[in-house]
User: Which sequence fits this backbone?
């Protein structure tokens, strides 16, 4: 097995007396399409917040490309290549769509030359994601699907090695889900490792090569989509006995 | 390159015009009122670097301004230091306070940050009231140095304020157009998303609070020589907090021109009202105009102009 891109080792996170993550470990290998599922409140988003650096971990270690990043601040993890999209889109509302992309291009991908280069690159990314016609509108004028695409486009502009997609498809129609899935497949083909957190089983099962299941802050299963579907422990976590 | 040369030329031209006006020795009231308006140009510009660019609303403007003024009082009392030294020291001390306030942004956002800065102003005022060396609650008379250029000291201070205004506006304009300004705009829109997109939010916030503090201190440092009698109630006047916030809001917070327009319009209106109607009218004017703008033109005059041009 190839050396892991991301290693999470015994990660623990508490909010007061509530343990949101209890010694969770997982490895993600380079180029992998990795699915992270679990019932509501199982700790998926908390795990992502700890990996991206938005929340400090209370225990355990996180390594990226072999380097311990447990104490590295969030913006520097982004520069290292861990980029996330948000479940509820958080665009920069005072800027146009293209300017939204200029921020990560400049700050995360190291394109310090302002002006033409950044603008051209932003347009290039918008073209691959199918948002170029909206480049000069502000996020307030976007539809829900366009907003999700902006979230992904902005993440791409940060030049990720590992893209964490946090419920990018919630609330979208079936055709729109296919649209987003196609984008994620294309990104993966370009060599970007992707962690997908999703409630829409059809999407995760189709997309992921390997899935880890969380329940109540603990890791309860790991395997290929087929194995996960047949796993009685997973069934119990989702449906009860 | 040509652009920055032009900026430099415009800045020099404004300073030159200010010095020329000072040398003309027109009615002394012009310099007296002009000083106050220019002081507000510096304060509104300084406030806007933190409040407008980064979105952290500072209600503690009087604390930074008065700290600059009292640093000057302390140095006048102890060493009779020359004006440039007073301005540098005032800026330095208020800048340090700004840096301290910056660390507050780690835990306090939105209205909670504003309340904390307001409290800071009250705490600082209490400390000054109990410090006899700089006059305590009774205040202190300051004797102006003799033999100023342009014949009168107020005229000289007017020319100094022209220079400081140009400097403050240049700093604000530079920040706005640099990668720092774009990062500040990102964190103003959404701090969490900005951090996740690689923006070092804490470092940028510390930068903004420090620069804003320096400029407010710089605005306050010549104040003792202007009024010649410094006492805490006037130095920590809440009017400064209201004006420094209202002027950028009226002019427009996203561009360096906004605070300048707001300060000139509102500052002039206040000076006129003080002379022609009553000294109490000026805050009333601020209140009415501010409410009108928040309701009708939330992006200020700059926003209005952009909207009209856009069509």
Assistant:
């Amino acid at each position: 097995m190839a050396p892991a891109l991301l290693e999470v080792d015994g990660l623990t996170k508490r909010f007061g007396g509530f343990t949101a993550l209890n010694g969770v470990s997982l490895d993600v290998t380079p180029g992998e399409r990795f699915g992270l599922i679990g019932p509501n409140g199982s700790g998926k988003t908390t795990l992502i917040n700890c990996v991206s650096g938005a929340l400090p971990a209370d225990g355990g270690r996180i390594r990226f490309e072999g380097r311990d990043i447990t104490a590295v601040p969030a913006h520097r993890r982004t520069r290292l290549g861990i980029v996330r999209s948000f479940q509820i889109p958080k665009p920069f509302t005072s800027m146009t769509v293209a300017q939204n992309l200029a921020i990560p291009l400049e700050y995360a991908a190291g394109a310090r030359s302002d002006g033409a280069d950044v603008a051209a690159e932003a347009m290039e990314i918008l073209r691959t994601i199918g948002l170029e016609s909206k480049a000069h509108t502000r996020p307030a004028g976007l539809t829900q699907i366009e907003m999700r695409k902006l979230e992904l486009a902005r993440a791409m502009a940060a030049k990720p090695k590992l893209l964490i997609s946090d419920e990018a498809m919630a609330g979208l129609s079936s055709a729109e889900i296919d649209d987003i899935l196609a984008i994620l497949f294309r990104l993966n083909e370009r060599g970007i490792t992707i962690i997908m957190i999703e409630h829409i089983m059809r999407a995760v099962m189709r997309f992921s090569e390997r899935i880890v299941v969380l329940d109540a802050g603990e890791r309860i299963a790991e395997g290929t989509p087929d194995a996960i579907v047949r796993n009685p422990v997973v069934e119990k976590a989702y449906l009860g006995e | 390159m040509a652009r920055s040369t032009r900026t430099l030329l415009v800045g020099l031209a404004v300073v030159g015009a200010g010095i020329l006006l000072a040398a003309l020795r027109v009615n002394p009231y012009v310099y007296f009122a002009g000083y106050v308006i220019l002081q507000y140009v510096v304060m509104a510009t300084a406030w806007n670097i933190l409040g407008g660019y980064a979105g952290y609303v500072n209600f503690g403007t009087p604390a930074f301004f008065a700290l600059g003024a009292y640093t000057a009082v302390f140095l006048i009392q102890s060493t009779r230091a020359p004006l440039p030294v007073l301005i540098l020291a005032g800026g330095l001390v208020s800048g340090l306070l700004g840096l301290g306030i910056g660390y507050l942004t780690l835990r306090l956002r939105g209205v909670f940050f504003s309340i904390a800065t307001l409290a800071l102003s009250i705490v600082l005022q209490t400390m000054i009231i109990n410090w006899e060396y700089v006059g305590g609650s009774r205040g202190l008379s300051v004797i102006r140095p003799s033999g100023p250029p342009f014949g009168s000291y107020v005229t000289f201070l007017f020319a100094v304020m022209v220079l400081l205004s140009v400097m403050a506006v240049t700093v604000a304009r530079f920040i706005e157009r640099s990668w720092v300004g774009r990062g500040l705009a990102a964190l103003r829109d959404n701090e969490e998303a900005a951090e996740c997109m690689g923006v070092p939010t804490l470092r940028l916030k510390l930068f903004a609070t420090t620069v804003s503090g320096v400029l407010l201190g710089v605005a306050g440092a010549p104040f003792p020589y202007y009024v010649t009698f410094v006492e805490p109630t006037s130095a920590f006047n809440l009017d400064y907090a209201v004006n420094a916030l209202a002027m950028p809001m009226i002019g427009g917070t996203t561009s360096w021109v906004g605070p300048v327009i707001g300060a000139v319009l509102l500052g002039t209106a206040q000076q006129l009202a003080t002379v022609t109607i009553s000294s109490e009218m000026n805050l009333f004017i601020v209140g009415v105009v501010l409410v009108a703008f928040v309701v009708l033109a939330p992006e200020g005059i700059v926003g209005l102009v952009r909207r009209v041009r856009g069509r």
Observations:
- Residues 183 and 198 of chain B are 9 Å apart (CA to CA).
- The beta strands of chain B are 140-141, 229-230.
